[in-house]
Amino acid sequence: MAERTLDVALDPFDEPVTEMVDVVVIGLGPGGEYVANELLSRGLRVVAIESELMGGECADWGCVPTKMMVRAANLLAEAGRVSEMAGSATVTPDWKPVATRIREEATHSWNDNELVVEFERKGGRFIRGTARLVDGADRSLDRWDFESGAIGSDGGDSALSHDVEVGGRRFSPRFGVVIATGARNMVPDVTGLAGLPYWNNRDIVQLEQLPNSLAILGGGAIAVELGQLLARFGVAVTIVEVAERLLASEEPEASRLLEGVLRAEGIEVITRASVELVTHDSHGFSLDLGPLGRIRADQLLVATGRRPDLQGLGVEVIGIDPKLPELCTDENMRVAPGVWAVGDVTGHGSFTHVATYQGHIAVSDITGSDHARADYRAVPRVVYTDPEIGAVGLSEQSARASGLRVRIGQAPMPTEARGWIHKVGNEGLIKLVEDCDRGVLVGALSIGPCGGEVLAVLTLAIHAEVPVSNLKTMLYAYPTFHRAIEAALADLH
């Protein structure tokens, strides 16, 4: 599927000029968009530069449209469970209303005009293009004092020696630059793959018609979410993962449970696979897995992860190697004097909530406001399969590897009251990781029909370092899914 060509609307200037502004934001995904709008609301002159669509991956190709797809697929699954508990039902999957909703409600046919107009109405300057840092004149950094509404020096001990170029135009930011350029899909080095018409997650989101069969290369969150939901719409799905298990970065209990669920739904899961060759012809794709045989499918989805791409951004002018995997920031989101970074490009996970969290810190630091420092001890993450897989903090293996003495507690969801009542579709468990020496939780796993929602209380416990002794005396409503936390606490050993 050909990727949609974006309409380009560069600022029309006859010749390159340099313009003084307050802040330049490069990249308008969730983090960059948050920063740009917040700085506007505080009276700063903001130039926002985006090479694709305002809103970024999450709004247009990730979180929002894919969760619409998940919601629709889960309805089909629930309808299929009626016969086990409440009579009979016949449901015929139809992708058309899903595609229509994504196009009309979520993405406006992948058009960001309304967002751009609103941003400019508030006084912002939007430029569609690819920006890069360039050398500029040395000058002392200014800082906006929000309380007094005045501009003050940052003390004169820092110097900003770089500007931003885009579309033949140069901007000299008075306060600094915020980099929020996100991440790009990784493509594995597999013989024959380059140049083939395989799909990525964006192509799946823009589908108007589903294939009969789909091979998925990769076993992470994107792969398993899309694989399960498409299978529920009747696509024959095969997931091929080179690691020994799906979701290899999460707890092994999560991998085992999910693999069992997917196989029970008719999805072929192949792990420890070595893809030796990929070919494509008029009949579709063929993947040679060596001793594991060969698989064929109408289409191929490559979902082998995402990573920041610093090439072409001009980070050399601030002393950073563009070949690095991410931009390293301090606890104030600073990369260098006058440069902040937020979102995927910082390497703290491709999560909207992390990007906006970092954005708040960056805005506060730029404006000189009091703020908490970046803290990643309790970053929640959810895989939106059925059951949902929520995790926060350290895994058991990571905790032990860091030298902590840990105790582990588990509670299977099907044998807890709400899980037993729920019956079909009740797969799940709670797993807790406790730091014995401090008596607090440092990691947790929440799998179940509402795994992502149950995760909230565990995130709070880790973030606030609530003593396990206090968690054990807390009241847990009966019968709820979150009550399984009480059983897992009792199991700590």
Account of the protein in words:
The chain is α/β, with parallel strands linked by helices and 493 residues long. The protein has three domains: 18-55 and 112-183 and 308-367, FAD/NAD(P)-binding domain; 185-303, 3-Layer(bba) Sandwich (FAD/NAD(P)-binding domain); 380-490, FAD/NAD-linked reductase, C-terminal dimerisation domain (Enolase-like, domain 1, 2-Layer Sandwich). 29% of the residues lie in helices and 24% in strands. The strands form six sheets. Strands 1, 2, 3, 4, 7, 8, 18 and 19 form an eight-stranded mixed β-sheet that branches. Strands 20-21-24-23-22 form a five-stranded antiparallel β-sheet. Strands 12-11-10-16 form a four-stranded parallel β-sheet. A hairpin with a 2-residue loop joins β13 (277-281) and β14 (284-288). It is globular and about 70 Å long. The N and C termini lie far apart (52 Å).
The CATH C-level name of the largest domain is Alpha Beta
Helix count?
Answer: 15
The total count of strands amounts to: 24
Ends apart, CA distance between termini? 52 Å
Mean pLDDT: 93
The proportion of residues in beta strands is 15-25%
